[in-house]
Design brief:
Blueprint: H1 3-22, H2 28-35, H3 39-45, H4 49-71, H5 78-95, H6 107-129, H7 141-156, H8 161-176
């Protein structure tokens, strides 16, 4: 793909993610106009709004998987990995604010989302085993709370992803710290 075509595709996808999060009925024409590209450019790549939406979700899942991989949840020390993960996911949530819950009927989306959740749950179990976190709530509670903090923090915390991650990690660890 040519550099300008790649840039236009990313612009359409990120603009689409933002607009569809704000208004799930946003049209391809409106997304193209907001992205500053001709709607024919979008229709050449996506035959329908549903195809564009599927591509947005695919890009969000790719970004989540990349953030998990970059955080090195299986091998990095907990304090390093938790901050990398939180910072990465805040960036994902800010760039791709669409809710994956809307696409869970698609088995491939559901499977990829479940794999990501399993990775984070395994990381949190390791943190409990190493004494960084307490296990005093229901099974999976720490992961649920962390996910909620990530959604709210990405939206409501000011500053860079790193600055927001500092606040969010402190909040999470002070609530669940060992």
């Amino acid at each position: 793909m040519r550099a300008d075509a790649k840039r236009n595709l990313e612009l359409v996808l990120t603009t689409g993610a933002r607009m569809l999060a704000e208004d799930p009925s946003a049209s391809i024409a409106a997304i193209a106009a907001e992205a500053g590209v001709d709607r024919r450019t979008v229709y050449r790549r996506f035959a329908s709004r549903d195809e564009l939406l599927a591509a947005v979700y695919e890009a969000r899942l790719d970004a989540i998987e990349a953030a998990i991989e970059a955080a090195r949840l299986r091998e990095a020390p907990f304090p390093v990995a938790i901050h990398r993960y939180v910072e990465g996911i805040i960036e994902v949530n800010r760039t791709w604010p669409v809710d994956l819950g809307l696409m869970l009927a698609d088995p491939s989306v559901h499977k990829r989302r479940d794999r990501a959740i399993a990775e984070v749950d395994a990381f949190l179990r390791r943190a409990v085993e190493q004494g960084f976190l307490r296990q005093d709530g229901p099974d999976g509670w720490a992961g649920t709370v962390l996910g909620t903090l990530l959604r709210v923090g990405a939206r409501d915390l000011p500053g860079s992803a790193s600055q927001a991650a500092d606040v969010l990690v402190r909040t999470f660890v002070s609530g669940f710290g060992g």
